[in-house]
Every structure is written in structure tokens, then in C-alpha cells.
Amino acid sequence: MIAATQTIPKLTLEDFLKLPETKPASEYFNGEIDQKPMPQGEHSILQTRLSRAINQICEAQKVALALTELRCTFGGRSIVPDLAVFEWSRIPKTEKGRIANGFTIHPDWIIEILSPEQSANKVMKKIIFCINQGTQLGWLIDSEDESVMIFQPNKFPEIKSAGEILTGLEIMGDWQLSVDEMFSWLTP
């Protein structure tokens, strides 16, 4: 018996953006919608502390800004990174000089924190997509094995663990964070 196939039109990016937001957020690529997993304890503390650590240095000096769970729509895709960091001069603003609600540019630095039920390959594809669109730096944090995979344009990914040092965007100067220090945040 031959099954009949139906052609179902793929959802366009414009149609996706008209849909109501979901909790947790959904992302769009090539007609497919993928809902992110609900953040849990380890994910939440890493996201909060990283945002604070980056913004303590960058916001005061007006060099960059780290934003959590921000929808970024660019290159035919709509993503919601755990952290999206933008160089200060690239932050979209309204006519009144306030931060824009819609970001239609790639982040300069994308940070993703792997959740237990997430596919590492799917998250890596998102980071690589961003790098190919102009993002300067990508981190994939895996709290299970306490490592961070670093992505940069035209370089093989590298994995940092234990006492190794993580660096941010070049514009951040000598800002550093050790892998050990970051994962120590998981012990209150």
C-alpha cells in the first residue's frame, strides 16, 4: 500500500514572528520551530552570574552589554541565546536613544548553556550559524563535564576545562574568567 503524501507549506519567518511568544522561548530556522527547554537551577545561576560578570566590566565602560534570553532575528533565522553580548556601538536604539525592542542583527558574542535534555549538536549548529553571520565569539557551556567549547571565526573549536582561562570579546580588554571560578558559582 502506498501512503499519500501531502505537501505542507513551511512556515515563513514573517509568520513565525507574528505568533505569540512561548515560555520557554521558541526559535525558528528554515520553516521549523524548536522550543528551548525550561532553564533549571544550574543553567539559571550560570546565566545570571555570567551576565552580571560581563556587565560589571562592560556596561560601566560602555564597551558591551550582555542581555539574557533576547530574541535576535537575522540571516533568515530567529534565535533566543541564553546570553547575547553586543558591542556598545552596535546596540540597536530607538529614535529617543533607548534600547530597541527588536534586534535584527547578530550578537557579537553568543553564550549557550547546555541543558540536560538539549542536543549538543543542535546548539553547536546555532553557534556556528551565528559565527558564519559575523558573530566574533561563541561559548557552549556544559556543566555536566564542567567545560566550555569556544567557537571563533576561521578556527577549530577548542575546549577549556579545569584551571584554564576564558576570555571575552577583544573590546573587553583583559577581562578573564577561569573555568573553575565559573563552575564554583554552582555551589552556593
From TrEMBL:
Keywords: Endonuclease, Hydrolase, Nuclease. Residues 13-179 form the Putative restriction endonuclease domain. InterPro entries: Nuclease_put_TT1808 (IPR012296), Restrct_endonuc-II-like (IPR011335), Uma2 (IPR008538). Gene3D superfamilies: tt1808, chain A. Pfam families: Uma2. GO terms for molecular function: endonuclease activity. CDD domains: DUF820-like. The keyword Hydrolase applies. SUPFAM superfamilies: Restriction endonuclease-like. This is Uma2 family endonuclease. It comes from Gomphosphaeria aponina SAG 52.96 = DSM 107014.
